[in-house]
Amino acid sequence: MKRFLKVIASGIGFSSLGLLGALFSLLGLPILHLLPGGPDKLHRRTRWFVFRYFKALAGFLEWAGIFDLRTQALPPRKELDGVLILATHPGYLDVVILLSLIDQLTCVVKADIWNNPLFGWVVKAAGYIPALDPTMVIEEGAKALARGETILLFPEGTRTLPGEPYAFHRGAAHLALQSRAPILPILVACEPPLLAKGHRWYEMPRDPCDYSFRAIAPLDLPWPGLSDLPPSQAARKVTAWLEDRFNQEIHAAGHLAARHEAVHRQDP
């Protein structure tokens, strides 16, 4: 029975995402476009609505018993201007919760979302960065960080299997090198896994998941001579360094060995 009720709550959450996304695109965005202030004001207003919606969605899912949310050491919002947030990505809801925790967050969105007839208008109005071309992501990301925006990036590129060591794409390293922005690592963990890679929206564990978002000490690039190296070589060095730092943190916390995929136990 517990799992059945959670499946209903999950269905309501996913349905609201589509329904409210459509309503906001058709009714909300035209009004925001008419307000004064130009593109920058439009981006900020749209991000505020995104923040409020995902805050409500995350609160509903937690109320429904799907997860218990824990945050640790997340800095105050005013300290995140111009910061590159690199977060691990064990489940589908990671971005939902991060968007509910941090207002005015700039995301890098996949091409299928950017071109989606339902959500494309929203992410464009929010000033998000489309992952259409790696060079453009790096250039636009560096400009956004220089303007004081806070960028969220999942350096793994996609949801990863529980228990696997972290392996990052080089895009995060290239952006860090070009922007020289402070890096805030956020370790996301969910036990048991929830909506992990390969799971469907209706696959719910019986008991509430422990969903934690833990920020660790901000990082600065460690080698002043990196700019003298060819970009590909510098990015390899930074990627390996980031992987090592993240894996050290998660291993020290004891999560690496504890994570597992035995999620969907049957109700007795």
From TrEMBL:
Pathway of action: Lipid metabolism
InterPro entries in alphabetical order: Plipid/glycerol_acylTrfase
One biological process term in Gene Ontology: phosphatidic acid biosynthetic process
Keyword list, A-Z: Acyltransferase, Membrane, Transferase, Transmembrane, Transmembrane helix
Residue intervals passing through the bilayer: 7-29
Keyword Transmembrane helix included in the entry's annotation: yes
Signal peptide: none
Domain Phospholipid/glycerol acyltransferase: 83-191
KW Nucleotidyltransferase (keyword) present: no
GO molecular function (one): 1-acylglycerol-3-phosphate O-acyltransferase activity
Descriptive protein name: 1-acyl-sn-glycerol-3-phosphate acyltransferase
